[in-house]
Write a structure and sequence with these properties.
Elements lengths: L2 H8 L11 H11 L6 E5 L5 H7 L6 E6 L2 H14 L5 E5 L11 E7 L8 H10 L1 E14 L5 H7 L9 H10 L2 E8 L2 H21 L6 H19 L3 E10 L1
Parallel strand pairs: 1-2, 1-4, 2-3, 4-5
Antiparallel strand pairs: 5-7, 6-7
Helix pairs in contact: 1-8, 6-9, 8-9
Amino acid sequence: MDRRVISSLAHRDHPVAAPLSDASVDRLLDRALPRGDERLLDLGCGEAAWLLRALTPRPGARGEGVDTSRDALTRAREAARAAGLDARLTLHEQDAAGFTSPHVFGLVAVVGSTHAFGGLLPALATARTHLAAGGRVLVGEGFWEREPSPAALAGLGASHDEFDDLATTVERVAEDGWTPVYGHVSTQDEWDDYEWSWTGSLSRWALDHPGRPDSAEALRAATAHRDGWLRGYRGTLGFVTLLLRAS
């Protein structure tokens, strides 16, 4: 089963593809879009959950999303039409790192997708090229809550140098010419809800479709992910979402 299909199934019952609650998403968007009529861009938008959440209560806002997954963008368009938002949402099927636009944006979001750019600082460099004067960047990135054990690294399929601790992560951002104006560190409850939702949604799909040739593979993927989390990185991997202004 394609990894993008697994991810789509696993994220069906969670507000966004990151360990954030509904309340946290809304609070971050309220801070990020103070006027309510901004033009916003999501690089690596997936099914455009952030864009749909941003546009729904802000009739003056317009959004654009970029992603390489045709299936995810198809579902995003369907959700936008169902919500009556399709006239204010433009989606592009292409590599986000190479995306160009005639517009600049009051908010550029890169939440949980910095890996697509080669890391946090390259993602911020790309975001900067799209940013209007005085605009904001919303970036979500992992960090080490504590020194990762071999089991944690194995569960994530990650290397030790893939992330820094929280203080170092913020320092790197500041040294790169950004000023954090708000931030949210995902709580253990948010992480647990995200992981139970991820593994539960995928498992439920597999159990509901026993005749599908890929149902057994989906169930194995859910089980492996759950074991990697519970026996490995639970309490070790953190997630911070930063709202940034260019210094």
